[in-house]
């Protein structure tokens, strides 16, 4: 229970000579020095209480360890990485994990602040030591090479990665390389999709910067948008319509690496539901079909009630049953992912604009209307 400023004073080197033959004497001296400091140990508001327990490590005492385990604690389980294949080390690791979750799991409480009876309660943080004694795995050498490559290029082809793997001392097989890329995609150290295998993005910050070229506030568009495409840019900022002319303004510098990999970037953005290309019927085809839509940039809301917009009355149409799902919490932008998913499966309905004598797809801020397949029923 020591404040930061006080701990610095306490940890200053003393004139006393440390005796390696008598470590307990040195420890006693340091503890006495700490107790004589000006720290107020009774001040429970500014300091946390730290309790240290010295467990007996012999197997005969394992059953007593449950006495010290609490369901309200956060646990650190430390193990030697170089002993991963040792049976005794594996048993010891399993013993502690089983003990923690056997004796510390608690039933669901009324308070939402406490853990429920789930596998990850109480939380356990795994700490691996002796990493320097672990033999380099096949994937680790390739990982280091990709880290060096990232300093030169933010994106490389799959052929280059295969060449780096083959050129290493422990080359990966085709299946191992795919598994390697999938794993590093999951932890977002790179971006790789199995159905977009031609390129792998090594620098995720570079990809984020590429996203910002399209999904950005109007004040940051001044340097790139042109006057002749002003209406197209307004379409993007109001209705989320991403015209090819706007993409031309964004990627007009053909020498940049962004322009060179424009098609791959757009496909990746589709994968992450940042941009979508809605399905529309051939009979209602318009020039908008060739455009992308950016759901998070749609500001336009329905001008009137949905039923009024599509001229639906009780005489012409009966309302179907509503199916609602209730959640304790959902991130606000999840609706954009839902709209993107629906756009891949159903046709987006068309709404007629009487004043403009045109029709637009019914994609609005936080809502969209779809024509269900075959029945042509409309789903909102």
TrEMBL record:
Pfam families assigned to the protein according to its UniProt record, in alphabetical order: COR-A, Roc
Superkingdom of the source species: Eukaryota
The keyword Repeat appears for this protein: yes
Provenance organism: Mytilus edulis
Keyword Magnesium (UniProt): no
Protein name, UniProt field: COR domain-containing protein
Residues of the COR domain: 141-276
InterPro entries reported in the protein's UniProt record: COR-A, P-loop_NTPase
Keyword annotations from UniProtKB, A to Z: Repeat
């Amino acid at each position: 229970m020591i404040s930061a400023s006080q701990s610095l004073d306490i940890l200053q080197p003393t004139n006393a000579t440390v005796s390696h033959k008598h470590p307990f004497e040195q420890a006693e001296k340091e503890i006495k020095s700490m107790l004589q400091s000006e720290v107020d140990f009774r001040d429970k508001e500014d300091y946390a209480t730290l309790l240290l327990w010295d467990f007996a490590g012999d197997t005969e005492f394992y059953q007593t360890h449950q006495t010290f385990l609490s369901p309200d604690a956060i646990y650190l389980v430390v193990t030697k990485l170089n002993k991963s294949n040792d049976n005794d080390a594996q048993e010891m690791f399993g013993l502690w994990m089983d003990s923690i979750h056997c004796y510390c799991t608690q039933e669901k409480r009324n308070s939402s602040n406490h853990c429920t009876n789930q596998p990850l309660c109480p939380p356990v943080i795994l700490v691996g030591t002796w990493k320097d004694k672990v033999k380099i795995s096949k994937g680790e050498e390739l990982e280091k090479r990709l880290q060096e490559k990232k300093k030169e290029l933010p994106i490389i082809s799959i052929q280059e990665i295969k060449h780096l793997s083959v050129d290493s001392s422990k080359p990966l097989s085709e299946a191992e390389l795919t598994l390697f890329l999938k794993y590093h995609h999951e932890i977002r150290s790179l971006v790789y999709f199995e159905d977009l295998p031609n390129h792998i993005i090594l620098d995720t910050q570079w990809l984020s910067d590429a996203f910002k070229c399209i999904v950005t506030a109007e004040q940051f568009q001044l340097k790139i948008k042109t006057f002749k495409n002003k209406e197209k840019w307004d379409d993007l900022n109001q209705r989320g319509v991403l015209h090819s002319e706007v993409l031309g303004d964004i990627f007009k510098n053909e020498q940049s690496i962004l322009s060179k990999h424009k098609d791959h970037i757009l496909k990746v953005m589709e994968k992450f539901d940042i941009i979508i290309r809605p399905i529309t019927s051939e009979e209602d085809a318009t020039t908008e079909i060739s455009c992308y839509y950016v759901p998070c940039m749609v500001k336009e809301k329905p001008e009137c009630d949905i039923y009024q917009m599509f001229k639906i009355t009780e005489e012409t149409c009966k309302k179907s049953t509503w199916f609602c799902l209730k959640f304790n919490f959902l991130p606000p932008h999840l609706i954009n992912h839902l709209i993107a998913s629906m756009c891949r499966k159903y046709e987006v309905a068309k709404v007629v604009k009487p004043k403009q004598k045109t029709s637009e797809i019914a994609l609005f801020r936080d809502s969209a209307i779809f024509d269900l397949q075959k029945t042509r029923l409309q789903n909102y």
